[in-house]
Amino acid sequence: MAKGRITVAEEYCKSCGLCVDACPKKVLRISDHLNVKGYRPVEQYREGCIGCALCAMTCPDAVIEVFRENA
Yes or no: is domain 2-70 CATH 3.30.70.20? Predict the structure, then answer.
C-alpha cells in the first residue's frame, strides 16, 4: 500500500475545508494557529495518508502538494 504525506503553503490557505472533506482517510484538519492573512491553514494531523491527492485536486488555491512513496 502507498504511503503519503502533504505539505501546505500555509500563507495562501484560506481554510475553506474542501480538502478536509475530500480526504478519504480523514487525516486532515483545520489547524488552531493563524497564518499571516488571519486564516487557519489545513494540516495533516495524523498518519494514514495514502497519497491519493484528492485534497490537492479539490483545493481551489492549489496550496497542497502531495508526496507518495510505494511501500
Answer: yes
